Amino acid sequence: xxxxxxxxxxxxxxxxxxxxxxxxxxxxxxxxxxxxxxxxxxxxxxxxxxxxxxxxxxxxxxxxxxxxxxxxxxxxxxxxxxxxxxxxxxxxxxxxxxxxxxxxxxxxxxxxxxxxxxxxxxxxxxxxxxxxxxxxxxxxxxxxxxxxxxxxxxxxxxxxxxxxxxxxxxxxxxxxxxxxxxxxxxxxxxxxxxxxxxxxxxxxxxxxxxxxxxxxxxxxxxxxxxxxxxxxxxxxxxxxxxxxxxxxxxxxxxxxxxxxxxxxxxxxxxxxxxxxxxxxxxxxxxxxxxxxxxxxxxxxxxxxxxxxxxxxxxxxxxxxxxxxxxxxxxxxxxxxxxxxxxxxxxxxxxxxxxxxxxxxxxxxxxxxxx
Length: 370
Ligand code: FNR
Fold this sequence. Notes:
By secondary structure, the protein is of the alpha/beta class. It is built from 11 helices and 17 strands.
């Protein structure tokens, strides 16, 4: 196999046999109440695991205030650990490596998703923000939010640390901190959503503090070799914007480089959250630019096809490429790419929530043609 995607690569202490990673994908099929993974989720990850293949779990809620999509799994309670252990064991049985994506929705939530019906939390209250949440009433506009007090921000870092610890108890191989797509960490990073005047707002250094403290907290649990960070420097999903994204993300990538994390996971331009973005006003920043300041393993995601993924790795811009939507509809995606088999199309209508339909019923190629 001379396809560069099948050249082994190191990720922290792990040796991956191929460079086709499964991107984190919110599917909202955890068991309710309790938001713990059940048998269905274990089957889904099992189907997508491969020998020496890398999987990032779907965004997993680190604190009871962090849920924005009913059905997202959590890691804020010990009772959620056994369900995750089943997922991890299934992936390990296939020889795969799986990291847990740690996430807090911040203002992309709704009072119906919050403990005691209180307001969702954010760095700042910003007028004109229009987000969405998924509640028992389906997709609804995000409700008004409130700004976290400084002591609460410190407490939130601790919630991320505890979540990282539970992830370890569940047997994951590491954690990925979700700093993209307009959720809480991204809300702190970008000045369109962070208007604080304490040490978590204002300068780039201050706005990056929350992410960097969380990263250090995760490292205190896992060691730097088993912690990754995901950033979306070009994304506007969740009402994100910044007055100088190039300076912001260059600073953040350089700081993460200094911390020596296992990898940096970047969402490329052209993708708006979970769909193509045809608008021309995106900042054309991502792997190609941040490669200059981040020297560790780089994972790129966003709108890739097997051929474009191979060229990005070939030119040295990324070490791995994560596929999202094609991994939904092709559980055996690495094998299909290896063999040159055609890729199945995905059905958007079953992305979020529901049953096994559009989740565990996409067949592997051999089965499809048998
Ligand atoms: C996503 N994406 C995403 N990103 C993330 O960091 N955490 C998550 O939980 C999710 N959830 C999610 C759900 C669904 C249904 C989609 C389609 C996307 C973004 C995803 O990881 C990836 O960046 C994009 O899908 C772009 O890659 P593709 O799909 O073009 O390969």
